Structures are given as structure tokens and as C-alpha cells.
Amino acid sequence: MADPLQTRQPEVGFRPRVTRLIWIVGFVMVALIAALTALELAVLSQRALGGGPKAMAWAAGALFLLGAAWAVVMWGRGPLRSHPLATGLAVVLLTRLVDIALVNPPLASDFAVYYRLGTQISQVGPILDKVPTGYPTALAAVFAPFGAQTLYGQLLNCAMGLATAALVYDIAQRLWGPASARWSLWLFALAPTQILMTGVLASEPLYGLLLCLAIWLSIRLGARWLLAALAIGAVLAASNYVRPTSPALVPAFVAVFFIASYKPKVATLASVALVACFLVLLAPVAVWSEQTKGELSISPSNYGGWSLLVGTDSARTGQYNPDLVSQVGGTPGTPDFDRRAGQLAVERLRKNPGKLVPLAIQKFPIMWAADTYGVLYTIGIGSDSGHPSESKGLLVASQAAYLVLVTLCAIGLWALRSAVPPTVLLILLMVLALALVHTFLEIEPRYHSFVVPLLCIPAGYGATSVRSVRLPWNDRATPAVARF
Description:
Helix content: over 70%
Number of helices: 22
């Protein structure tokens, strides 16, 4: 039986129109991110490197390296073609291990909290706390047998990177073949920010892995709709223990059940099964929330109201603002504090609903167009002057690599415009859902880190499509398609 989640959309009925709408909105968003990323790169290059011959040398060097990478991946021989997955995973492993060996990021902010909770859980067992404990529980799994050292958490992140890379490759291969899969894998393997974040005890690597796993399950088990629904529901529930934004992703999978070639009755039953499994596995959170906060909720965090207050704060464009703590009053992380913060946020929205749109426009490039957080959280860039030249170079390299990724993603979406696979629609819906959620909630540039592996999938198709594009004035011009 054919897998409904890999087939192209039907040609009649409402599905093609819905597919077209999702594609248009998703393509516009990715293209906008690419344009804003290019602008951010220009500003960053001028600020970090200055003008003149030095900046031109950096630009020439970056273009040379990109061209070399292109040649190696597209026309490489030997293991690169005969064993693309093994070669790519070896590069993922090597780059992450080098990062762990050379970079020693400080334990600060959220990362220190995760380390503390991981140590505590390794001693007392699974718990729920004021922040999501999914990632600390994963840390505890390696802390318990080996000891509570940051090195073991970093090696865990490395293992997660390997698993994510394997999933990215297999998803792209199932959709478009080995050529696109090879590109998707290498785009993820060599992304500077993804490499640098390996040494940071942050929840993004685990969350990105779980999102990729949910997409992979939708392909691998798509023909067995009940098993697929239950498996996806379980993975999304697990991801909600890592970041409390996962409920926003459930409608994306439900929508794809109906858009794919499932019959309406099957799609309905699959949706019910997914939602039911998702909620059942989050029952411990609901019980904990009722006992500690006096409310029924599936959010494993005491910062939901605070995130809404920060996200609607125009003074800091939706980013963390310590001045808001005194406005709320009390101790951050407590149920009462979070409840008051949420009430203040709702009151703010009621009084000035018109400010949300301009604020959302200002938040968008901060959330999606800057990909330098890997350098900021590791080497610790704190100002625009007095930094080592290699730090400035890493900032520019990280942004340039991200620009290549989102540009290829936009090209891939454009090449797929006539027949968009449901899996690509699922990726677009997930990205759009996260963008919509963070229109209201707190933002940080690193909050798009877990989306990067998802973007690598259509970006791989975009890279192979570029190879087959013919010039407009060529008499034999043909539409761009992937060459396998």
C-alpha cells in the first residue's frame, strides 16, 4: 500500500486549494526570512569586519569555501557517493567532537538550571518543576551512570545531533532520493551554529530531534494510519515535556491527515487517536498542574504567563526584560507570579490590541533572521568591539551559512510548487505554527534552532534543483527538477 504522506496531493476537491494556500504562505515566509537574513548578514559584516579590503577578503574566502563545499558534495566521488550517510555522519561526529574539545561555554541562565535539574533527577528520579524537565531528564540518564559532568551532557548533545542527521537524511531520501538526501545531511552537518550549540546544555537539540522523529514516523508508518497516529502523538507528548509549545504543532499533523490521501473517516479516526495519545501521556502534567497551580493545564512550566508578558512587551521587542519582574511582584517561577504575569499580559492586550501587529513585525526578524546565537552562547560575544578576529569571523560564517540554507529552502519550495508532498506541507505548517505562537510569546534568536533540521530537508531538494535549472534564454529551458 502506498504511503499517503509521501504521495502528491489530489487534483480535485478542496485539498489542492488548501495545499496551494499553505505552500504560498510557507514560501513567502521562507523567502522573507532569506531576505532578512541577507540584510542581517550585510549589517553584521559591516559591523564586525568593517569595510575595505578586509571585508572583501572575508567575502571572497566565504565564497571560495561555499564553492568548494558545493563541488565536494555535488561532484565528489569515493565514499561521499558510495556511502553518503556514513560519510555525513562521520562529519557530524567529528565536527561536534572538535567543538566539545575546543569550546568550553559557561553554564549560565537556562543552561545552569537544566544542569542543576539533571543532577537532581539523576539522584531522586523523574520530577516536574517550574521549567520543563524533559531535557534535564535526558541529562540525568547519562549523569546517573557516569556522573554529573557537563562533558557527558555535551556528548549526549552530540549523539542527538547524529540521530537528527540520520533522520534528516532518511526523510529526504524517502521523498526525493539520495542526491537531495546527501545535500540535506551536509547542510545540517556543516551548519556552524548547530555545531557550536553542541557544547551548550540547551533543550533545542533534543526538541529538534523529536520534531524530526515525528516527521519521520509520519512517513515511515503513514500507510498504517493508527500506528502512525499513536506514535506521532507519543513523540509530540514527549516533546511537550521539553518545550511547552508542542500543542501548537498537533493541528499541523491533524491537518496533514486530511490533506493526504487518507479517506475522511480514516483521517478523523487518526486525528482522534493522535490527540488522545498526546493527552493521555501528558496526564501527569495535568495532575501536577492541578496540585501545584490549582488549574488544569498540560504545560510543564511555571513561565507561561511570564512568556506572554515578555512576548507582548514592546520595550524590549518581545525579549527578556528584567524590569518586568518588579512590575509583576513576587518570586519568578512560582504559580502566583506566573498567574499575575499572565493577567498583566492579557490586560495589556485588551487595552492596546493594535500594538500587537507592529510588535509582531519587529519580532519576526529577531526570531528568524539572526543565526549567530551559537557564537554568542559559546565564545560569549557581548559587544560590537574588542572581540578576537576569529569570533567576528564565526559570527559572519554562521550567518552566511544560514543564508545559504534558507535560500536553498526557498528554492526547493519553489521547485515543488506544482506538486507539494504532504510531508513538506507538514514542515511548513509546523514552522508557521511556531511563528504564530511566538507572535505572542517571548522570543530569542535561538528559539528557531530546532527548526533548522526541518528546513534542511526541502533545502536539499533546492540544492539539487539548482543544478538542473537552465537559463531563461536557453532554447531548451525546462522546469527545475531534482536529478537523482
